[in-house]
Amino acid sequence: MPLLFFLIVMTLATSVVTCQNTDMKAASAKHKKTFEMNLSEEEWRKRLTPEEFYVLRQKGTERPFTGRFYKHFDTGTYVCKGCGNELFDSESKFDSHCGWPSYDRTLSPGSIVERPDYSYGMIRTEVLCSKCGGHLGHVFDDGPTSTGQRYCINSVAIDFKKREK
User: Fold this and answer.
1) Can you tell me the distance from the alpha carbon of 7 to that of 84, in angstroms, rounded to the nearest whole number?
2) Which CA distances in Å does 37 have to 40, 44, 69, 109?
3) Which fold has domain 35-162?
4) Residue-wise over 12-34: b if at least 16 C-beta within 10 A, else e?
5) Catalytic residues
6) Could you state, in order of their start, the residue ranges of all structural domains in the chain?
């Protein structure tokens, strides 16, 4: 009897996982987008440092509290390191104490693309550059401002253009 119970539970669990994987693939397919800037892997490797390539092209993450822009609060615009696309204004930046630069809104509605991310057993929303498709980080619905958003972005995926006063 215990063996039969075990087999039934395993069969049901396998069915649930299969359905979830199918749903995740369907959701990801729905969010496919072609990007204006399409370089080969070799071209990206020439253009980016190994760490930039790891984050932007392989969806990596820099270690928390180590990024160049974590505690950076100059006035200007944050742009994609891969293509220069303008992403965030310094006025939207805040210290979320999460270990990565955080913003409560994008510079313009079309500057990023959001996609479901089911990696590592989590359900998150990935943030990509709308021009080159580079992985920037994730957005969460726990921001402290009126937008309720916290765009948690890898410093290595962005650059900064200082605004003259």
Assistant:
1) 55
2) 10, 11, 25, 19
3) 2.170.150
4) eeeeeeeeeeeeeeeeeeeeeee
5) 152
6) 1-30, 35-162
In which residue are the tokens 């820099």 written?
62
Average pLDDT over residues 137-141: 97
> Residue 90 in 3-state DSSP?
helix
What percent of the chain has pLDDT above 90?
A: 75
Measured in residues, the chain has a length of 165
Say if residues 55 and 62 touch (Cβ distance below 8 Å): yes
Report d(CA 17, CA 36) in Å as an integer.
Answer: 35
Across the range 74-87, mean pLDDT stands at 97
Copy the structure tokens of residue 105: 């809104």
Given phi > 0 = left and psi -120 to 50 = alpha, else beta, which region is 10?
alpha
Q: Rounded to an integer, what is the distance from CA 127 to the centroid of its chain?
A: 3
The pLDDT of residue 29 is: 44
How far is Cα 32 from Cα 133, in angstroms, rounded to an integer?
Answer: 10
pTM of the model: 0.80
Q: Structure tokens of 17?
A: 């996982």
Quick: pLDDT tens for 25-40. 444 444 456 788 989 9
